[in-house]
Amino acid sequence: MNWLLATPIWLRLFVLFALGAFVGAAAQRFANWLRFEPVVATPGSHRRRMLVVPLLTGLAFAGLYWWEVDQRGLVRAIAQAPAAPDVDWALHAQFSAHLILLVWMLVASLVDIAEHTIPDLVTVPGTLVGLALATICPISLLPVLAPRGGGGGAGFFVDFLTLGSPGAFPAMLGPKPETLSLAIALAIYWAWCLALLPARWRLRHGWGRAARLVAARIARDPITRVIAGLATVGSAGIVAVWWHGGNHWVGLLTSLVGLAVGAGMIWTVRIVGRWAMGREAMGFGDVILMAMIGAYLGWQAMPIVFFLAPVCGLVVGVVQWVRFRDNVLPYGPFLCLAAAAVVVAWWNIWALAAPYYALPGLVPVVLLLCLGLLGALLGLLKVIRGRLAD
Q1: Whole-number mean pLDDT of the chain?
Q2: What per-residue confidence (pLDDT) applies to 229?
Q3: Is the pLDDT of residue 198 over 60?
Q4: Contacting residues for 232 by C-beta, under 8 A, at least 6 apart
Q5: Binning pLDDT at 50, 70 and 90, where does residue 365 land?
Q6: Using one digit for the tens of pLDDT, what is the confidence trace for 161-191?
Q7: pLDDT at position 191, please?
Q8: What is the pLDDT of residue 152?
Q9: How much is the pLDDT for 117?
């Protein structure tokens, strides 16, 4: 770490810009490979796209490092404090995790913009990497400041967000011998694996026939064996971390709960949208994408990402409708943009949100009320569209 900090900041930024440009070009090629239809573009537009994405990615790599590490943008309270080994290590670990998340979100957004779908080949490995990072290096989770001794700016140290933040991590969800925490972790992971199975329910001929068709489809699909392997290996890993305990278990369970909350929110919107409008309001790829984001950022960031994403998409949606009369808009890129905004502005966001998260039960109640309001609005929109069609 000392040799890295001894390197001039301009050189570190230059290397990161070059690395980001290379990764951006590779991500774009990977996204093109994942597309269902071949890329058809004029030579001029293709050349511009091949230059813009690497350029923006390089700027994002360098800019994120400048903000998170050099300026200590996510821990502003110690921005002017002398450098300390634990602070420097934590900032670089968090930056590395956010850089990895950025790359996964870039590929997912590029594919979603072109195909209006998000392949599991992006979000599944991304989620597994997020869970592994939170386990091996818990300090890579979003930062919070914890008092060291008597308090004061110099008396704080960088700690990582846990599922109990801003309070203490719940003792009943600790490692061995607490079996409840193990059951919750395994249930979340198994539910995520089950959601990846090729199960599409068609209820026109009743639940019994639909269940038999789904079971037959799952049994003959080769991906089922891959998912079964993921479930087996992942479950063994969860049990091993639970047995070992310490901050590794705290980080893993925090990441898993973030996965569950992120996926659960988008899945609930799908259900509400189908009930209110008779069709899906969001694709299933958005569910798995939000699960991936939650694995990196924790459950506390998920409501903020969820409600910030429509704001990010509002301007683009209005422009697209006015100019092209097109109301089909992929939602994944706006979830990614909202997640990036939460990461960059985390210190200010958490300073505002932490007191509300500290109130027992407030966040779930607010979410339920908002989802109810969303259902009412979607139902009203369906009625308005029906009247306009008449």
Answers
A1: 83
A2: 93
A3: yes
A4: none
A5: confident
A6: 999 988 889 999 999 999 999 999 999 999 9
A7: 94
A8: 45
A9: 87
More confident residue, 305 or 275: 305
Among 131, 111, 55, 143, residue whose Cα is nearest residue 336: 111
Overall size of the chain counted in residues: 390
Residues 6+ apart with CB under 8 A from 120: 196, 285, 288
